[in-house]
Write a structure and sequence with these properties.
InterPro entries: MFS (IPR011701), MFS_dom (IPR020846), MFS_Efflux_Transporters (IPR050189), MFS_trans_sf (IPR036259). It is found in: Cell membrane. Helix 1 (3-33) packs parallel to helix 6. 60% of the residues are buried. The protein has a single domain (3-393), classed as Growth Hormone, Chain: A (Up-down Bundle), CATH 1.20.1250.20. The chain is an all-alpha fold and 399 residues long. Helix content is 81%, strand content 0%.
Length: 399
């Protein structure tokens, strides 16, 4: 494994910790600022929307510099955002800190995906992307539970200060280990924008929004769901997040392995499974053991979609992958924002803490339908022989 992949995984670990640790600390933060839990959910929505905006914005700004330099600048921005969150005197400032940190997220994973794929042979690209995302999944096994534990024991502000320190480690890792490759020949914003003319790129992004939205509909409100419905103590939320992280870790590795062999069948299976498991979660949430098993499955099935969806975007954005890759990371977080908002709506409407699971099941089902549509369009285009000039050079997508 190239050491540069380790550096990218370290950065991903810090970003993954700050993105997900908020879920375990929502009740404490809400109580500190005197806001409701659905209102505190805006810290998830705001972060996610910041990723959506920051992904294309920061990537566009970075087209004039080397990928290593922009990755280092993004980690610096991430550190600053977490320091603002750690010291925020009001809920509004806390939200602002979350947004500042989030601006780095999409571009880091988007540019990092391109760098990771370029470091290995063509048949190993999805595996390399999965290796980088391993940092994100390990964050959910180690960083998020520890951050939740620290936040509940000595205060959530300490958690965000520690996350800022993690960002510094990620910055140093990128500086030391990522090769300083020259800017790609002909890389400019206008060329990067051409990728969005391809309907398959847009469909893959829509699948990302809906599929990952399904995961976050359930997970955003896991703390109140598990304590009020399943009967777990507040302290048990930490271990449930460990289980979610283990599911994410295994799903990501599975997705990386099979996306290089059978991309679309992998998507069909994971999205169908995710929709079914989220629907069942409305029932299993009432039993401690079944709820814990379901949390693992939601993490596993949700993150098994990450490498194939990211690879599909890279395949179809051939020649101009950087912006498309970053925007697809934004799409994951648009799904997070949509799901956190819809989940808050159904809870506020009095439908209970399990109601967001139905929202998630519907979103995942919609993503599955888009996957079938995408494959049908691809078959139709092949049948007509309508292949664009640049498609001949694409890495083939396996079915």
């Amino acid at each position: 494994m190239p050491l540069a992949l380790l550096a990218l995984a370290i950065g991903a670990f810090g970003i993954g910790t700050t993105e997900f640790v908020i879920v375990g600390l929502l009740p404490e933060i809400a109580a500190d600022y005197g806001v409701s839990i659905p209102s505190a959910g805006l810290l998830v929505t705001g972060y996610a929307l910041g990723v959506v905006v920051g992904a294309p914005l920061m990537t566009a700004l970075g087209t004039k510099m080397s990928r290593k330099r922009i990755l280092m600048l993004l980690m610096g921005l991430f550190v600053a955002g977490n320091l603002i969150s750690a010291t925020a005197p009001t809920f509004g400032v806390m939200l602002a800190g979350r947004i500042v940190a989030s601006l780095a997220h999409g571009a880091f994973f988007g540019i990092g995906s391109v760098v990771a794929a370029d470091l290995v042979a063509p048949q190993k690209k999805a595996g390399a992307i999965a290796t980088m995302f391993t940092g994100l999944t390990v964050a959910n096994i180690v960083g998020v539970p520890l951050g939740t534990l620290v936040g509940q024991a000595v205060g959530w502000r300490v958690t965000f200060a520690v996350v800022a320190a993690l960002g510094v480690v990620g910055l140093l890792g990128v500086a030391k280990l990522v090769p300083d490759l020259p800017r790609p020949e002909g890389a400019h914003l206008r060329r990067e924008l051409t990728a969005f003319r391809n309907p398959q790129v847009l469909l893959a992004m829509a699948m990302t929004v809906l599929g990952f939205g399904g995961v976050f509909a359930a997970i955003t409100y896991i703390a109140p769901m598990m304590t009020h419905v399943a009967g777990y103590s507040d302290g048990a939320v930490t271990w449930l997040l460990v289980l979610f992280g283990i599911g994410m870790f295994l799903g990501n590795l599975l997705g990386g392995r099979y996306a290089d062999r059978a991309l679309m069948p992998m998507l069909y299976a994971t999205l169908a499974g995710l929709a079914a498991v989220l629907a069942l979660f409305t029932v299993t949430a009432h039993n401690e053991i079944l709820a814990a098993v379901t949390v693992v499955l939601v993490g596993g099935l949700g993150f098994a979609t990450v490498p194939p969806l990211q690879k599909r975007v890279l395949d179809h954005a051939h020649g101009a992958p950087t912006l498309a890759s970053a925007v697809n990371i934004g799409a994951f977080n648009l799904g997070n924002a949509l799901a956190a908002w819809l989940g808050g709506l159904v809870i506020s409407a009095g439908l209970g803490y399990t109601a967001p699971n139905w929202v998630g099941a519907l979103l995942a089902t919609a993503a599955l339908l888009l996957a079938f549509w995408s494959a049908a369009l691809e078959r139709r285009d092949r049948g007509r022989g309508s292949v664009t000039p640049d498609a001949a050079a694409r890495t083939p997508v396996h079915h």
